[in-house]
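Researcher: We're teaching a course module on how sequence relates to structure. For the next exercise, students receive a sequence and then see the predicted structure as tokens, so they can try to spot secondary structure elements on their own. Here is the exercise chain.
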Amino acid sequence: MAACQPFCRLAHLTPRNLSGDSNVADLDLLQGTLDTLVLKTLSWGPRHGYAVAQWIKATSDGTISVEDRALYVALHRLEERRLVESKWGLSENNRKAKYYQLTPAGRGHLKQRSADWTEYANAVFKILRVL
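Model: And here is the predicted structure for the students to work with:
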């Protein structure tokens, strides 16, 4: 699991890289990653925050878990950027919950970020395969 950090444990979003040095680029990468994962989750339909976190964890077979605070900061950031919108509703437990859904701009942003991530991941894998 240590080799996977900081990417696999989004629960620990801090502006620090593995060596402990402050690095804003690392934080931007992590925030962008979390935003993209949230947008992907919402591409399957509206969900409340807890359901977003559960979907990410389940879909990654438990490798990626998102801390509540990081998730809600991301959801609010996405809402401010008009990539998601929210409305109040009732959860499966009959409790009041805020449901988030993608906007058309959010769908377009997800498509672009998915392409960017695929290109980035392929480049990293190419480097890692070099003997």
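Model: If you want an answer key for the exercise: The chain has a mean pLDDT of 83. DSSP finds four helices and three strands in the chain.
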